[in-house]
Design goal:
Blueprint: H1 3-11, E1 20-21, H2 23-44, H3 54-58, H4 70-80, H5 87-100, H6 103-113, H7 123-135, H8 158-171, H9 174-180, H10 184-192, H11 199-209, H12 227-236, E2 237-239, H13 245-254, H14 256-262, H15 277-294, H16 329-335
Antiparallel strand pairs: 1-2
Helix pairs in contact: 2-15, 5-8, 5-9, 6-7, 7-8, 9-10, 10-11, 12-15
Length: 341
Amino acid sequence: MTTQSKRAERANLPELAPLVPTPVYDTYWRFAVERQNIFYRRIEHPFGLFTTDPILARHKFTNAYRASDRVSQFLIRHVIGSCEKDARDIVFRVLLFKFFNKIETWQLLERKIGEIRWRTFRRQRYVDVLDRAMASGTRVYSAAYIMPAASRFEGARKHETHLRLLEHMLGQGLAEQIERARTMRAAFELLREYPMMGDFLAYQFVTDINYSEMVRYSEMEFVVPGPGARDGLRKCFASLGGLSEADVIRLIAERQQLEFERLGLTFKSLWGRPLQLIDCQNLLCEVDKYARVAHPEIAGLSGRTRIKQVFEPNPTPIQYVYPSKWGINEKVAASMPRGVT
């Protein structure tokens, strides 16, 4: 029996059967607690000591809650915030922002074009702005995840294929179709029909649209595990016992309070909002990275052995705001230190 198998056997919890957890499973919950503690510490003391965990102190990890990350916060406040009532503007602005997933690119387009609205969209104007930016050496895409080109629109540079795809989607009535969709799964399937839209991207994009008021989907409806989450699952469990990856993520989400209590941990939730499926999926991706250093003996699917991104503090404070339908913004505002705008 291998060392990994022995550890998995010792760590096995009967109530988790048929899953066979490894030591990384307990690390998952400890990581979630400490990462969320860091989130609150940064709010209370922006220039203080965030953590004594050497891995978390050195490397960059996303928040326990997806909506708390800086890019998501920008999306909620600035991209969605000014067009809450117009479905076409919401879908247009959200998808435009997410294709590039970079705050600086959005700000560049606003400076050069002005108000970003579907009714005034002229593709070539946007192409020209991005062409000039790229010619000067500016990166217009985030490195958070790789955006494939929309292959249907051949003969154009990557950013132009995305703008053509966006024009096509809105022209086909996608915004109105999503507004009428009764479930998150139905909206996901609408996005999934378009070029470039694999399962993972379509799930991420429908989650972003769901931050708006045009739809009211539950984040506990369904989940699509990405590559990092699948790696994390293989590190947390020596065997999935025949369960699907999505089913395991749901089980994790449903057991969160039980697992915190089992380990004697106090998890400070998002002002009363428990971890949702999208958050548990993201945490699996992050614990995959964390385990490369904390549990180097336990391999995932990718075979990666180091964490590339080093933590660099961003001095710009965030005035946190969340979808109003979550009902937590009054608590959030009361927790913000004075002077944070």
